[in-house]
């Protein structure tokens, strides 16, 4: 029993910060997710900042229509463990994808995910808040209902690996989603860390040390949506120079006007002496790294011909120059959202 109110039922997950527990709220008679922070000062202080942000979101979203997770309360357990009580949600989009053998979602579902995520980003950006850690793990299905057995619609275009060929393909009972984990969210007037995001969803302006803002969330979302379609990380790497090279290979060469604004350290590590191109492939970590980049398909080749409006949205979100990247509200008006798809 936590806080003389919440009966713990099971562990939902562990993380570097602590753990999340499923519990029953015995006063309001509902199930909740309790995020318990480790007894470490920096984690505890970070959790308090997150709780304040979630309170701000709740005040601005009285009808709970923003698409952001709802926090009900906070308390301290045993005088040491800071806890946040939030609404119960379902699986993350990453976990669902993994359990499906990394076969992508139906495009109808990706379209709905995209619309809802953009709506949520439009809301938090309206609060001068940048999420800074968007990834499939931090987007949760709202439903806790069992998934439905379906068929994988792009089996010819995206044949699954042999290991998953006979695995039943599942589709969420509902495609409603919510954004979670605002532990690294940053207001416009707060200190901006030099590095944000899990690497694979990190925008070029962050890597090049140009400075970042709300538009970095739009880049992250573009990476996420393509991953939900293909089932695989778009920029699959653990090295910054290789990641920049992948961006050029999959999308287009960076404009010189972007590269020349790079930070001093980034110029030295990643750019040619004239600072108008990447130091690639001459500074690649290995021959295998060069081959890995060369093997990548252009983004337009990674989607079926009948889904090119989806690719156009992805290209828009993955505009290298952040100043030319759309606002969330602008992206929501893209023609992709007015189309009807058979899958």
Verbal overview:
With 343 residues, the chain is an alpha+beta fold. It folds into two domains: 6-87, Phosphorylase Kinase, domain 1; 93-338, Transferase(Phosphotransferase) domain 1 (Transferase(Phosphotransferase), domain 1). Helices cover 32% and strands 16% of the residues. It contains eleven helices and eleven strands. The chain has a five-stranded antiparallel beta sheet with strand order 1-2-3-5-4, covered by helices on one side. A hairpin with a 4-residue loop joins β2 (18-25) and β3.
Strand-helix topology:
Elements: E1 6-14, E2 18-25, E3 30-37, H1 41-60, E4 71-77, E5 81-87, H2 93-99, H3 107-126, E6 129-130, E7 139-141, E8 148-150, E9 169-171, E10 177-179, E11 186-187, H4 204-207, H5 215-230, H6 240-250, H7 256-259, H8 264-270, H9 287-294, H10 308-317, H11 328-331
Name the features:
343 residues; alpha+beta; Phosphorylase Kinase, domain 1; Transferase(Phosphotransferase), domain 1; 2 domains; five-stranded antiparallel sheet; two-stranded antiparallel ribbon; 11 strands; globular
CATH superfamily of the largest domain: Transferase(Phosphotransferase) domain 1
Number of helices: 11
Describe the main β-sheet briefly. Answer: 5 strands, antiparallel
The tally of strands reads: 11
Please give the order of strands in the largest beta sheet: 1-2-3-5-4
CATH class of the largest domain: Mainly Alpha
Structural class: alpha+beta
Helix content: 25-40%
Structure summarized in a few sentences:
The chain is an alpha+beta fold and about 350 residues long. Helix content is about 30%, strand content about 15%. A hairpin with a 3-residue loop joins strand 4 (about 70-75) and strand 5.
């Amino acid at each position: 029993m936590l806080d003389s109110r919440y009966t713990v039922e099971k562990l939902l997950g562990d993380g570097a910060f602590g753990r999340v527990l499923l519990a029953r709220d015995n006063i309001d008679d509902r199930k909740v997710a309790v995020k318990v922070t480790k007894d470490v000062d920096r984690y505890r202080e970070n959790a308090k900042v997150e709780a304040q942000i979630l309170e701000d979101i709740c005040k601005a979203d009285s009808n709970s229509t923003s698409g952001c997770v709802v926090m009900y309360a906070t308390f301290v357990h045993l005088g040491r463990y800071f806890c946040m009580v939030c609404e119960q949600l379902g699986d993350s989009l990453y976990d669902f994808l993994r359990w499906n053998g990394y076969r992508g979602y139906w495009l109808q579902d990706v379209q709905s995910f995209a619309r809802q995520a953009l709506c949520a980003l439009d809301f938090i950006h309206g609060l001068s808040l940048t999420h800074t850690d968007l990834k499939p793990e931090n987007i949760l299905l709202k439903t806790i209902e069992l998934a439905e057995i379906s068929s994988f619609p792009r089996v010819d275009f995206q044949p699954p690996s042999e290991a998953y060929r006979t695995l039943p393909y599942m589709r969420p009972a509902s495609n409603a989603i919510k954004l979670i984990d605002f532990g690294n969210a940053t207001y416009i007037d707060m200190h901006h860390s030099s590095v944000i995001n899990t690497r694979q969803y990190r925008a070029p302006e962050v890597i090049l040390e140009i400075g970042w803002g709300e538009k970095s969330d739009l880049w992250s979302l573009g990476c996420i949506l393509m991953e939900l379609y293909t089932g695989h990380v778009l920029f699959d790497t653990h090295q910054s120079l290789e990641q920049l090279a992948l961006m050029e290979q999959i999308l287009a060469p960076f404009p010189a006007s972007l590269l020349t604004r790079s930070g001093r350290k980034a110029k030295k590590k990643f750019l040619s002496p004239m600072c108008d191109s990447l130091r690639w492939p001459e500074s690649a970590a290995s021959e295998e790294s060069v081959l890995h980049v060369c093997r990548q398909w252009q983004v337009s080749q990674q989607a079926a011909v009948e889904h090119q409006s989806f690719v156009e949205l992805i290209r828009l979100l993955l505009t290298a120059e952040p100043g030319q990247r759309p606002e969330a509200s602008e992206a929501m008006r893209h023609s992709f959202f007015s189309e009807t798809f058979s899958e």
